[in-house]
Specification:
The complex is a heterodimer. Chain A contains 6 helices and 9 strands, in the order ααααβββββββαβαβ. Chain A is an alpha+beta fold. In chain A, the strands form 2 sheets. Chain A has a 5-stranded antiparallel beta sheet. A 4-stranded antiparallel beta sheet of chain A has the order 2-3-7-6. By secondary structure, chain B is mainly alpha-helical. Chain B is 66% helix and 0% strand. Chain B contains 9 helices and no strands. Chain B is globular and about 55 Å long. The C terminus of chain B is likely disordered. The chains are: A alpha+beta, B mainly alpha. Chains A and B meet through helix 1, helix 2 and helix 3 of A and helix 2, helix 3, helix 5, helix 6 and helix 8 of B.
């Protein structure tokens, strides 16, 4: 214990006063602007988690982690998107997990308890990320769009990362040109050529058995 | 949700559920500090959508904490006084300020918690006339302080001079001895005067000149 502590510095007091006034002004502005005060939602947090450089080889995740079901399902409902995870049957690939973000910036996560189905407009952004639990090389991906039970090859080239993640991203207008109503998306990943016919893709999307690694997403599109 | 040191270690080790828990627990403080920085430096902020800006900055901050095998995050030690929330919050504020100023994250060359056992090489510190220091000058000086002082030092500054808490209260919150708080107070004062002199050498001469001309 110091018997005779030094007096506080006047300059620090002046700086403290400026900082205090600054903070009050910042608090006022943040409180009045929902864009500044709204917490990060589930999609924004999921993107952060996906981007972090954690050692994947030591990841506990095998198969599909429990979090993705409630969190992504809530987001999906809010965004007008329904998805199903196709369990990996391909022995040469690790399990994949699916993250879908869709809609405009006001897409809400589970915390907001939003339950209404809000269809995607042509300008809505859509992003489908299908990524492996552990890094895998030489992955190829194909997409199919399914409407009224008929599958067509999706003429959108996915972005594929070095560790085997597959990403489709764009606006609804560019990804689903001229389409309205309910549209199914089937994404298939594998090593080497994926020789899947459109007929078989339609069957798999409808729930048919497959040993391929697939993701199924259902989107509501409005003009 | 409280994150323990073991939880931090699991997250850095690649346990995805621990990573998600860490991001969920820390994202409110990161979002709040980024928002505060964007408001403070709104002249430097881009014209992009503010939500996108906050999300991008938050991602950069979490990346800074986790990259290089979590070197920055591993520097947090609850035994040294700062809570994880305060540590991450102060890192978030400093990183987002650095990005806005220079377009890139700040280099952390040394332990951001360092200071208890180190003396800053700032003696002798020049006197500064706070009566003639303009608000603009003090704002710039405050920014320099934020950029140069460790998270722990900044927390002590906030408690003592922004929140105007007593030394006893600071000791209680940060689990410090009074001697250590007084030492920090002295160190912060010296650094503030040194930075003030660097920002504006005239500021340290005004006081002497005024004293000479005073009756």
């Amino acid at each position: 214990m110091i018997d005779d502590p030094p007096e506080p510095d006047d300059l620090l007091r002046a700086l403290g006063k400026v900082a205090r006034e600054e903070r009050e002004e910042e608090d006022r502005r943040i409180a009045n602007d929902p864009a500044l005060s709204r917490p990060l939602d589930d999609i924004e947090r999921a993107k952060i988690v996906a981007a972090l450089p954690v050692p994947k080889a030591r990841a506990k995740s095998r198969g599909f982690p429990a979090w993705i079901a409630p969190a992504a399902a809530a987001l999906a409902i809010a965004a007008g998107v329904f998805f199903f995870i196709g369990r990996a049957g391909s022995p040469s690939l690790p399990p994949y997990e699916l993250v879908v973000s869709a809609g405009d910036h006001d897409v809400r996560g589970a915390d907001a308890a939003v339950a209404e189905v809000r269809p995607l407009t042509p300008d809505s952004k859509f992003e489908l990320l299908f990524r492996p639990a552990t890094a895998v090389k030489d992955v190829y991906a194909r997409g199919f769009l399914v409407q009224n039970g008929v599958a067509k090859t999706w003429n959108v080239r996915p972005l594929t990362s070095d560790d085997g993640a597959v990403r489709f991203v764009g606006t609804a207008r560019t990804l689903f040109p001229g389409m309205t109503g309910e549209v199914g998306v089937l994404v298939v990943v594998g090593r080497g050529t994926i020789g899947l016919s459109e007929e078989d893709a339609a069957k798999i999307f409808a729930g048919g058995a497959t040993d391929l690694t697939v993701a199924r997403v259902r989107v509501q599109l409005v003009p | 949700m409280k994150i323990s040191p073991e939880g931090v270690e699991r997250a850095l080790g690649g346990d995805l559920s621990a990573v998600r828990a860490f991001v969920a627990a820390m994202s409110p403080i990161v979002q709040a500090r980024v928002a505060r920085t964007l408001v403070r430096h709104r002249d430097r902020a881009s014209a992009r959508d503010v939500r996108q800006e906050i999300a991008d900055f938050a991602q950069e901050i979490f990346l800074a904490l986790f990259e290089n095998e979590g070197r920055l995050l591993r520097m947090w030690d609850p035994a040294r006084g700062l809570s994880l929330e305060n540590f991450v919050g102060l890192i978030a504020e400093r990183e987002s300020s650095a990005i806005l100023k220079s377009g890139r994250r700040s280099p952390w060359k040394e332990d951001p918690l360092a200071g208890d056992d180190l003396e800053l090489a700032v003696e002798p510190a020049p006197a500064v006339d706070t009566h003639v220091a303009s608000r603009d000058f003090l704002t710039r000086l405050l920014e320099e302080m934020r950029a140069q002082v460790s998270p722990k030092g900044l927390r002590i500054f906030e408690l003592l001079y922004v929140d105007e808490r007593s030394v006893e209260e600071v000791c209680s919150e940060l689990a410090m001895q009074p001697d250590a708080v007084y030492a920090w107070r002295s160190r912060l004062g010296k650094l503030a005067r040194k930075l003030a002199a660097e920002l504006d050498p005239r500021s340290s001469r005004r006081l002497a000149a005024q004293k000479e001309t005073s009756p």
